[in-house]
Amino acid sequence: IHFGHEYHWIRAQEAIDWINKNYEKEGIELVGVLGDIAWYEQDHINGKKILDQLLIPYLPVIGDNEVSTGNEKLFYDLYAPQIEKLSKLFPNFTWTPGPVVNPETGKEMYLINYAFNYKGLHIVCNDFATRKASQTGRERIDD
User: Fold this and answer.
1) Secondary structure (3-state) at 60
2) pLDDT tens digits, the chain, 143 residues: what are they?
3) Taking the CB of residue 73, how many other CB atoms lie within 10 A of it?
4) How far apart, in Å, are the Cα atoms of 31 and each of 15, 27, 85, 106?
5) Out of 29, 43, 49, 94, which could bridge 3 as a Cys pair, Cβ 3.0 to 4.6 Å?
6) What kind and span of H or E run contains 34?
7) How far apart are CA 63 and CA 138, in angstroms?
């Protein structure tokens, strides 16, 4: 799911509605929301409202769009309550809430990593978004 253009909102709402209508029949128990959710602050805020309509747990994972647009802390602030809910639902849930200090820059960053066990699986949601700026000023890159 990505929020931004009008058709993104329509498709996202249709997907949420379909999941809510069919999750029992289809055996859907978790929804992964795998990064790059939005570029802009208001899209993140409104997108979270749509995701919160889900009747089953969802797993928000940060992507480089959130980091490269300066919305890393916003992502954390919006989704930390959802991650806290997950921590109460699943055994062996681990995560480190709050910012950490980047030893290279001395600046705070929000690494949103978490893991848990579910029905014999160990699910890991990793923050792989680089914090290095690209030379082009758009997407971030790793060396």
Assistant:
1) strand
2) 667 667 778 899 999 999 999 999 999 999 999 888 888 888 888 889 999 999 999 999 998 888 888 888 999 999 999 999 999 999 899 998 889 998 888 888 898 899 999 999 999 999 888 877 655 555 554 44
3) 13
4) 11, 11, 14, 35
5) 43
6) strand 31-34
7) 14
Q: For tokens 């997950």, what's the residue?
A: 86
Q: Residue 112 has which token pair?
A: 């949103």
Structure tokens, 18: 């379909």
* Cα four-point dihedral sign 48, 50, 55, 61: negative
Residue type, 22: N
Tokens, residue 64: 């480089």
Residue 35: φ, ψ to 5°: 70, 170
Q: Got the DSSP string for 109-127?
A: E----EEEEETTEEEEE--
Q: Which two tokens stand for residue 44?
A: 């993140």
Is residue 12 within a helix (H) or strand (E), and if so which, with residue range?
helix 6-26
> How far apart are the C-alpha atoms of 131 and 50, rounded to whole Å?
28
